[in-house]
Amino acid sequence: MADDLAGEKYTAAVITVSDRASAGEREDGSGPVLAALLEARGYEVVYTRVVPDEQDVIARVLTDCAASDVALVLTTGGTGFSPRDVTPEATASVCERMAPGIPEAMRAASMAITPRACLSREAAGIRGCTLIVNLPGSPKAARENIEAVIEPIAHGLRILRGGTADCAADDHPR
Questions:
Q1: Distance between CA atoms of residues 49 and 75, nearest Å
Q2: Could you tell me which residues are beta bridge partners of residue 160?
Q3: Which phi and psi (to 5°) does residue 93 adopt?
Q4: In this structure, are strands 97-98 and 124-127 parallel, antiparallel, or unpaired?
Q5: DSSP readout, 95-151?
Q6: pLDDT tens across 50-80, in order?
Q7: What is the pLDDT of residues 16-52, one digit of tens each?
Q8: What angle do CA 124, 48, 102 make, to 5 degrees?
Q9: Whose C-alpha in 17, 49, 60, 167 is 20 to 30 A from the C-alpha of 29?
Q10: Residues 80 and 120: beta-carbon distance below 8 Å
Q11: Which pLDDT score is estimated for 49?
Q12: How far, in Å, CA of 98 to CA of 80, rounded?
């Protein structure tokens, strides 16, 4: 596989949204999986945190990551139909521009695995020069979803962070 970052080294944060994990009632399974995947892809994971399903808390952590100039923030959890699942709303509340193609691509890839993928409410957006992407809470689904979009995300980060990128280049596998 080609180097996703093409010589660039971007920072990343992984935020797990879970009432039970934040209360110490269960172990965070998705956060470490995502952090390891990012590191294997050349990202420098500079921040990880577990927070409860509270919209204001999630929004504050996302805002803090952007203020710290983290390039990519992945959240895991809080994207379902439960009344406590408010991660997409927190994400939308702090983003200046939304990036709907990222969650659309993730859901499309997931539909090949499970018909329940259409129930996922992930969002993605940009705050300053930070890309925020929501992922499902299960380790398996979080991994499958980010793997579906990690290469285009690297290209998007190059553009977002001021690098040059030829959008018409056919240097990626189909």
A1: 10
A2: none
A3: -70, -20
A4: antiparallel
A5: -SEE-THHHHHHHHHHHTT-GGGGG----EEEETTEEEEEE-SSHHHHHHHHHHHHH
A6: 999 999 999 999 999 999 999 999 999 999 9
A7: 999 999 999 999 999 999 999 999 999 999 999 999 9
A8: 15
A9: 60
A10: yes
A11: 98
A12: 19
Distance CA 120, CA 136 (A): 7
Q: Which residue has the tokens 């110490």?
A: 24
> Chain-wide mean pLDDT for the chain?
92
Interval 75-90: pLDDT, tens: 999 999 999 999 999 9
79 contacts 89 by C-beta, under 8 angstroms = no
Q: How far apart are CA 87 and CA 75, in angstroms?
A: 8
Euclidean distance between CA atoms 121 and 103, whole angstroms? 8
Nearest to 11 by CA among 36, 38, 50, 49: 38
- The one-letter amino acid code at 128 reads G
Q: Is 48 helix (H, G, I), strand (E, B) or coil?
A: strand
Residue 76 pairs with which residues in a beta bridge?
A: 16, 135
Q: Burial of 82 by CB count in 10 Å (0-12 exposed, 13-18 middle, 19+ buried)?
A: exposed
